[in-house]
């Protein structure tokens, strides 16, 4: 996968080229040529292949993982080793699929989603960096604002935690609610394997809500022949439907897919005697159900069809056929019979999301199969303007019929027709289900021997609107004989008109219809003979005087129940709405009709919105002065969507601040005003343009007046202002249709500027005001540069006020993020405005937040909301965005605008403090390396701009230690940042970072050195304070940084020499800090050599050369011993070697540089090693070294190591007792007796006879032990290691140093560690 630079081709079989600075010849078969872009040509050029970026990322990531994967095995992390191997194989396969080029757009998107999930999973488990993504691809930090980058990191972090890739970024504050996304269920019948029927079958699929006990969708119908195949050969592999417009609420229902199987054939399936074979009956057979809750999660996660098998159950008693699906769901097993085998209906399901146009576009294969669109019984959640629908759903519920003198009950079949006013049967106006053609005659299924049949069958009646009025339904009832002739004898009928006399349609409820007697000879040729009869009880009450001599007599004991549900945008069941639509029939009742309109429910209004608006405007045109205000009030109170006429802009004037209903509908009022004005202008060639503009101006003056009022004492006014502010940003797009961008921006600026400051309004209005500003910033209007120049000052003014008072910080951060996402660094004027308004207050806000975060202010153990990491990160990203967009011109203007040096000092201290906190508090998580590197780049760039001002204003006579110290502390922290230590990165990542940013440590080191040189004689103020921090910088493993910074120590020595005649302070501080820093793991042999070389070269020309050389030599030798000590302690060396190394170091501190404190520290470290090895005698001798340094005096000693603050006498006494104890444990009583005598003398001189008695008894016990106890005599061996290849602490020069090792038993010494060096 590595990039090869091809130099030449050799005979077509090999290439000559270079790879990672190595030249060679490569077999042609191993090289794959592909197009690429080369940037930054030369030594540090970068080659980027012209391929999908995610393919490149997979390649580089797998190369990085391969090294770490092998290390997992070495470290015995076997579980992660095998998991990562599996993921790597999956990534290789997915990459192969992308490279094939044979995937559809949907498949490519899905493959990319799987790739990013696996990449993020692996990076997290391997401790690698988080990759910010947008649409599955890595984002370029240079192409987006820091605020957007921060949000993408948050989004990517969330995706990793959820193990799924979701759309990046949180919604911006103030975003309006999105339109709900509908769901669509794709159902495909693959086969019906229940092949024992042997007759034609109809299979119906529908969605059923168990909780509400009703069907919520139309039916999808499939006709199969007796062999189980489709009756229509063209429908092979096309038996599919799409159940549309399922809302989120629907998906949370207790839904089931119900499938009913109706056979067409004999009355009884297994009895050939029941009816002749040529007579066909629709008869219930079986039912299957599938719980959506069981499959929803599965089909939601998949992007393809998933197969399911549905068992078909048969009903034990046909009387309960109407509820067989409920019995199956509730597992009432006594009421149905399970199939003997598991075969049944095999269906596949797939869940689709989005509007129908989007679904069609994304899934062309599904719609090419002739999918049947199956709608909900009612309207979807969103009814779009212009949607036309006119469906009447009729449910044939049940009937009660007489036996009619027969010994057994009847087999009743219902036939239904739709007839027009002239008696003509309407053709193809009946639908049993989607997927099949409409029919003209409906025949119900027959329930065997049942005089009270319950069908519960839903039929759709798609009757044309122009044929609806005057049409009626006729139901004919026949008894189906099972005798030889198989006759179907007519014995009654029922009917119902589709519309009432008042013009409304059948209400959505159950209807009980009268049944009239008739016989087989009845022809119904004259429909008027029965239409004059009452069809139901309500109809009967309206016709009390019915003659008894009519041709059709009602059967008083027989009834039919049906229920209807109308889904229409043209026909209504509401009397008040109908009266409005037909107002011209009663013009004298207009005032009353308009008053009753407010009582019409919202759903009816939305369905008929277009017709209602047409009617209202026709009323308005008829008499504007008379009806205008009432029409306006009706519209405002009833709609959130609405229109107006150009004549009536003045109706919008807000006469009363309490009239908040108008304010709520402001958005839609403007939509209609503007659209009407456009149409009016088009029709009149722009007449009354000035009048319209004046009206708009007057309207905005009214809005400003209302917003400027103090609402704290009026709840009604608060509601009005809130409604105005919420609706206000939504009118911008409408205004842009009629006015220029500048004009609209002026309207908005005046309105936003009229709002009172945060001091004069309550907190709730504060939030509403900011949300309105947020929506303004997110609007299309704000995207135009010419409007931003007008709007930005007023927006920044409000943000500034809130930040000053630390109010509503989260909303303010969202607004600022949106602004930074829009504004580019090339917009000099806009950036200048933001710098003047925001920079100082942003720094102040960040310092306040960080201060609270550090002090962890809490209530009942919970940190206050404004101290969370989220809000800190938001404001840090805003500050970084602003600094990143500032050019040298902006920085120059910023610095020139400070009125005094005190202001400049305060600013520098703030910004340096914020930068230091960014590095100390770890605002961004460890794996946000992209964000951390960008932050470092902005900090170093800003520091480069600010350092000249620091040098110019605070040097010489105006020197200010606080500012300079803050600067130096920042620089030291910056260089020591873990994220900038390129040596810890993999070679690939190191090259990537270096190519993008260079080594920022070197950049800051140059700045630091330059500023140090500018200090002049003020350098003495930072001696010895900055020695330790600067020493830490020089220990960074980067040679260029070391070359820059090490000479500063010569400078410090020189300035102290000038002032004090020596450099003792530099010497003492350097040695103290060097010990602690090297013990932390910093420094190496290369540093030791470089330190000596550079300083000796500098010192060579100085008058104090001798003392300087001596000092540098001592430090170099100390460093040599410290490095040996560190390596020895970290390695797997023997205890003797560690002890020898420590002895060597403590002797150096005592004899060569006379650092008593460091000498004592290493005495105790050596003692601890002896105790761990149970060398108690050696531990006692070691502690004696410290004991000998102390005197029997009352001089107070400070707290040190584990010793408390105490007098020197008490510390020496304690040490003496401890040493005596260790000699006792080591059985070296001879060495303990002199110490006992020493202590006895001290106790006796103080008359402490109790302690004297105790120590004398111990001394006597030691004499007894010497005489009575057996022990081995100790033997001493002198061991010497000669030669420079041995570690420094083991080397011995002739007669200079020797080492005694004490052994309690005789041991044989073997030099097994360096056998090849014994001869040296």
Defining traits:
C2_domain_sf, 1320 residues, 8-stranded antiparallel sheet, 7-stranded antiparallel sheet, alpha+beta, guanyl-nucleotide exchange factor activity
* Gyration radius, rounded: 46 Å
- Indicate the structural class: alpha+beta
Q: Portion of residues in helices?
A: 40-55%
Provide the spatial order of strands within the biggest beta sheet.
22-21-24-25-26-27-20-23
What's the N-to-C terminus distance? Answer: 49 Å
The number of distinct helices, counting runs of at least 4 residues, comes to 45
Overall shape: it is elongated
- Range of strand content: 5-15%
Poorly predicted residue ranges? 163-178, 638-662, 857-867, 1293-1320
Give the biggest sheet. Answer: 8 strands, antiparallel
Number of strands: 33
Q: Can you walk me through this structure?
A:
With about 1300 residues, the protein is of the alpha+beta class. Helices cover about 50% and strands about 15% of the residues. The chain has 45 helices and 33 strands. Belongs to the DOCK family. It holds the Pfam family TPR_DOCK. One of its GO terms (molecular function) is small GTPase binding.
List the helices and strands and how they pair.
Blueprint: E1 5-10, E2 14-19, E3 22-27, E4 36-39, E5 46-49, H1 53-74, H2 78-100, H3 105-125, E6 133-134, E7 137-138, H4 146-162, E8 183-192, E9 200-209, E10 214-215, E11 220-224, E12 240-246, H5 248-251, E13 255-265, E14 281-291, H6 292-301, E15 306-311, E16 313-315, H7 324-329, E17 336-337, E18 344-353, H8 356-362, H9 364-368, E19 372-374, E20 390-400, E21 412-419, E22 442-443, E23 454-461, E24 472-480, E25 488-497, E26 510-517, H10 528-531, H11 537-542, E27 554-568, H12 575-581, H13 590-597, H14 602-607, H15 609-622, H16 624-638, H17 660-664, H18 666-684, H19 689-708, H20 715-727, H21 732-736, H22 741-754, H23 763-778, H24 785-804, H25 809-822, H26 828-855, E28 858-859, E29 862-863, H27 869-885, H28 888-896, H29 901-920, H30 929-953, H31 961-975, H32 987-997, H33 1000-1014, H34 1027-1034, H35 1039-1045, H36 1047-1060, H37 1064-1079, H38 1085-1099, H39 1105-1130, H40 1135-1151, H41 1156-1172, H42 1176-1189, E30 1196-1197, E31 1206-1207, H43 1208-1225, H44 1229-1245, H45 1249-1268, E32 1275-1278, E33 1300-1303
Parallel strand pairs: 12-19
Antiparallel strand pairs: 1-2, 2-3, 4-5, 6-7, 8-12, 8-18, 9-10, 9-11, 9-13, 13-14, 14-16, 15-18, 16-17, 20-23, 20-27, 21-22, 21-24, 24-25, 25-26, 26-27, 28-29, 30-31, 32-33
């Amino acid at each position: 996968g590595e990039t090869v630079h091809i130099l030449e081709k050799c005979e077509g079989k090999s290439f000559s080229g270079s790879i990672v600075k190595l030249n060679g010849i490569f077999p042609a078969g191993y090289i794959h040529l592909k197009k690429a872009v080369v940037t930054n040509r030369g030594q540090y050029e970068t080659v980027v292949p012209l391929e999908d970026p995610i393919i490149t990322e997979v390649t580089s990531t797998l190369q990085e993982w391969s090294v770490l994967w092998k290390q997992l095995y070495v470290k015995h992390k076997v579980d992660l080793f095998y998991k990562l191997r599996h993921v790597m194989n999956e990534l290789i396969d997915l990459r192969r699929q992308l490279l094939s080029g044979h995937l559809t757009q949907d498949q490519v998107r899905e493959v990319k989603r799987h790739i990013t999930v696996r990449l993020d999973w692996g990076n997290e488990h391997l401790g690698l960096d988080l990759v910010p993504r947008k649409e599955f691809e890595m984002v370029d930090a240079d192409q987006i604002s820091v605020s957007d980058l921060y949000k993408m990191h948050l989004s990517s972090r969330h995706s990793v935690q959820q193990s799924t890739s979701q759309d990046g970024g949180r919604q911006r504050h103030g975003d309006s609610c999105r339109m709900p996304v509908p769901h669509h269920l794709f159902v495909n019948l693959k086969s019906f394997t229940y092949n024992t029927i042997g007759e034609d079958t109809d299979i119906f699929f529908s969605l059923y809500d168990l909780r509400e006990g009703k069907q919520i969708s139309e039916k999808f119908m499939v006709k199969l022949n007796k062999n189980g195949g489709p009756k229509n050969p063209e429908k092979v592999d096309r038996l599919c439907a799409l159940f549309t417009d399922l809302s989120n609420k629907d998906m949370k229902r207790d839904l089931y897919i119900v499938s009913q199987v109706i056979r067409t054939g004999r009355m009884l399936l297994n009895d050939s005697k029941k009816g002749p074979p040529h007579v066909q009956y629709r008869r219930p057979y079986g039912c299957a159900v599938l719980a959506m809750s069981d499959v929803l999660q599965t089909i939601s996660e998949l992007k393809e069809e998933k197969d399911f098998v549905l068992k078909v159950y048969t009903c034990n008693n046909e009387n309960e056929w109407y509820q067989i699906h409920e019995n199956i769901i509730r597992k009432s097993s006594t009421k149905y019979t399970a199939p003997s085998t598991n075969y049944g209906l095999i269906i596949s399901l797939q869940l689709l999301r989005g509007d129908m146009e989007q679904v069609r576009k994304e899934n062309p294969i599904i719609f090419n199969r002739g999918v049947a669109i199956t709608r909900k019984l009612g309207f979807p959640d969103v009814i779009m303007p212009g949607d036309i629908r006119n469906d009447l759903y009729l449910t044939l519920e049940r009937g009660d019929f007489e036996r009619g003198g027969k010994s057994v009950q009847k087999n009743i079949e219902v036939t239904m027709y739709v007839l027009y006013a002239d008696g003509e049967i309407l053709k193809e106006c009946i639908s049993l289900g989607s997927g099949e053609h409409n029919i003209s005659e409906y025949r119900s299924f027959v329930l065997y021997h049942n005089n009270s049949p319950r069908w519960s069958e839903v039929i759709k009646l798609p009757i044309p609107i122009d044929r609806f009025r005057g049409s009626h339904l006729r139901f004919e009832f026949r008894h189906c004989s099972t005798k030889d002739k198989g006759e179907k004898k007519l014995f009654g009928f029922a009917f119902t008109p589709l519309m009432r006399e008042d013009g409304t349609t059948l209400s959505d409820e159950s209807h009980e219809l009268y049944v009239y007697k008739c016989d087989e000879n009845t022809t119904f040729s004259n429909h008027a003979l029965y239409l004059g009869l009452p069809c139901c009880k309500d109809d009967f009450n309206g016709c009390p005087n019915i003659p008894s001599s009519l041709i059709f007599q009602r059967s008083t004991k027989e009834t039919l129940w049906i229920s209807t549900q109308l889904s229409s945008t043209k026909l209504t069941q509401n009397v008040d709405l109908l009266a409005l639509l037909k107002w011209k029939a009663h013009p004298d009742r207009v005032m009353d009709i308009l008053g009753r309109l407010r009582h019409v429910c919202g759903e009816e209004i939305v369905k008929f919105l277009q017709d209602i608006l047409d009617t209202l405007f026709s009323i308005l045109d008829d008499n504007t002065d008379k009806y205008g205000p009432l029409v306006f009030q009706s519209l405002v109170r009833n709609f959130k969507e609405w229109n107006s006429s150009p004549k009536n802009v003045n109706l919008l004037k807000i006469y009363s601040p309490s009239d908040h209903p108008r304010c709520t509908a402001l958005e839609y009022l403007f939509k209609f005003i503007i659209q009407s004005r456009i149409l009016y202008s088009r029709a009149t060639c722009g007449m009354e343009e000035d009048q319209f503009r004046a009206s708009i101006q007057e309207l905005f003056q009214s809005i400003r007046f209302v917003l400027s009022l103090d609402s704290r004492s009026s709840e009604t006014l608060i509601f009005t202002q809130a409604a105005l502010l919420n609706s206000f940003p939504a009118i911008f797009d409408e205004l842009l249709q009629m006015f220029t961008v500048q004009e609209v921006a002026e309207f908005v600026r005046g309105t936003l500027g009229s709002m009172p400051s945060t001091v004069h309004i309550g907190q709730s209005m504060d939030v509403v005001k900011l949300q309105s500003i947020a929506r303004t910033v997110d609007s299309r209007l704000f995207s135009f540069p010419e409007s931003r120049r007008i709007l930005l000052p007023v927006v920044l003014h409000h943000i500034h006020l809130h930040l000053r008072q630390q109010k509503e910080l989260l909303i303010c951060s969202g607004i600022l993020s949106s602004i930074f996402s829009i504004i580019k660094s090339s917009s000099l004027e806009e950036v200048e405005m933001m710098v003047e308004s925001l920079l100082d207050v942003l720094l102040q806000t960040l310092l306040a937040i960080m201060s609270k975060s550090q002090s962890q202010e809490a209530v009942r153990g919970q940190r206050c909301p404004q101290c969370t990491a989220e809000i800190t990160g938001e404001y840090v990203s805003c500050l970084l965005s602003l600094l990143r967009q500032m050019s040298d011109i902006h920085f120059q203007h910023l610095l020139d605008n400070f009125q005094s040096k005190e202001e400049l000092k305060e600013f520098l201290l703030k910004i340096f403090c914020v930068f230091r906190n960014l590095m100390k508090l770890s605002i961004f998580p460890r794996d946000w390396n992209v964000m951390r590197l960008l932050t470092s780049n902005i900090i170093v760039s800003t520091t480069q701009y600010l350092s000249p001002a620091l040098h110019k204003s605070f040097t010489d006579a105006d020197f200010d230690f606080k500012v300079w110290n803050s600067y130096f502390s920042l620089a030291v922290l910056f260089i020591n940042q873990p994220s900038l230590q390129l040596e810890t990165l993999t070679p690939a990542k190191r090259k990537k970072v270096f190519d993008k940013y260079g080594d920022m440590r070197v950049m800051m080191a140059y700045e630091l050195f330059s500023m140090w040189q500018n200090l002049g004689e003020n350098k003495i103020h930072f001696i010895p304070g900055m020695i330790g921090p600067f020493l830490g910088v020089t220990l960074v493993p980067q040679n260029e940084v070391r070359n820059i910074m090490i000479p500063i120590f010569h400078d410090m020595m020189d300035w102290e020499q000038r002032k004090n005649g020596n450099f003792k302070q530099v010497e003492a501080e350097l040695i103290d800090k060097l010990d602690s820093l090297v013990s932390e793991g910093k420094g190496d042999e290369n540093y030791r050599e470089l330190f000596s070389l550079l300083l000796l070269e500098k010192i060579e020309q100085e008058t104090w050369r001798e003392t300087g050389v001596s000092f540098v030599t001592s430090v170099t030798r100390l460093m040599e011993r410290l490095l040996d000590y560190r390596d020895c302690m970290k390695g797997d060396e023997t205890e003797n070697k560690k002890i020898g190394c420590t002895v060597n170091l403590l002797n150096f501190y005592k004899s060569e540089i006379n650092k008593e404190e460091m000498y004592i520290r290493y005495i105790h470290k050596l003692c601890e090693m002896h105790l761990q090895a149970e060398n108690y005698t050696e531990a006692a001798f070691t502690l004696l070294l410290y004991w000998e340094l102390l005197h029997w005096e009352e001089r107070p000693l400070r707290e040190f190591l584990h010793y408390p603050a105490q007098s020197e006498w008490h510390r020496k006494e304690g040490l003496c007792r401890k040493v005596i104890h260790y000699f006792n444990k080591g059985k070296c009583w001879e060495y303990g007796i002199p110490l006992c005598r020493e202590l006895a003398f001290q106790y006796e001189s103080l008359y402490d006879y109790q302690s004297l008695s105790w120590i004398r008894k111990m001394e006597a016990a030691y004499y007894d032990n010497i005489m009575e106890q057996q022990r081995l005599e100790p033997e001493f061996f002198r061991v010497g290691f000669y030669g420079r290849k041995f570690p420094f602490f083991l080397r011995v020069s002739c007669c200079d140093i020797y080492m005694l090792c004490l052994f309690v038993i005789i041991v044989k010494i073997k030099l097994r560690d360096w056998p090849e060096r014994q001869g040296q």
